[in-house]
Amino acid sequence: MWPFSKPAPKCSTGRVIDPSELRSLGAGYTGDAAYAQVSAAWLKSYYASFRSSLFREGVVRWDERFDCNHFASFYVALAQVRFFTENFQTRTPAQTLALGECWYQSERGPHAIVMAVADTGIVYIEPQTGAQLVLTGEEIASRFLVKF
User: Fold this and answer.
1) Contact status, residue 22 vs residue 30, Cβ threshold 8 Å
2) Which residues are 63's β-sheet partners?
3) pLDDT value, residue 3
4) For the chain, which terminus, N or C, has the lower number of CB atoms within 10 Å?
């Protein structure tokens, strides 16, 4: 490693989250026994890797056949692969990252984004741009599918 470069941040903080905590934060569906808290620093660096993966797969522009729900699903799936590879040799009881798909009613209609339980709190991400979103109380109340 170059002596002046920083190592890439790990995707999780090491804190393990119980599914009941996720449900109390609005997750409607949890499929694993234990989740790893997401590192906010990692989230900021992850988008470039996600975009590179999209481009490698030939997704270079928005298309109605690959819209918000596909972006959200792929973002989450690729992040879970990263968690698996980073933790393959560890003894963490967490099975997966506390990161999932979140569908809500935006002002333009149903929209899918990503929701993460990070060390900085709940973070909403627009996977089509990488931007962190601040949902209004009305938007949070309109969530109709939150799947971890």
Assistant:
1) yes
2) 66
3) 60
4) N
Q: Rounded to whole angstroms, how far apart are CA atoms 128 and 93?
A: 31
Instruction: Write the Ramachandran bin of 83: left for phi over 0, alpha for psi from -120 to 50, otherwise beta.
Output: alpha
- Per the structure, the complete domain to which residue 54 belongs is given by 12-147
Whether 62 and 30 have beta carbons less than 8 Å apart is answered as no
pTM, full prediction:
0.92
- The pLDDT tens digits of the residues spanning 47-71 come to 999 999 999 999 988 788 899 999 9
Nearest CA among 89, 86, 113, 105 for reference residue 97: 86
What is the rounded distance in angstroms from the CA atom of residue 112 to the CA atom of residue 110?
A: 7
Residues of the chain with pLDDT under 70: 1-5
Give pLDDT, residue 100.
Answer: 98
Domain count, the chain: 1
Q: What is the CATH number of the domain that holds 95?
A: 3.30.460.70
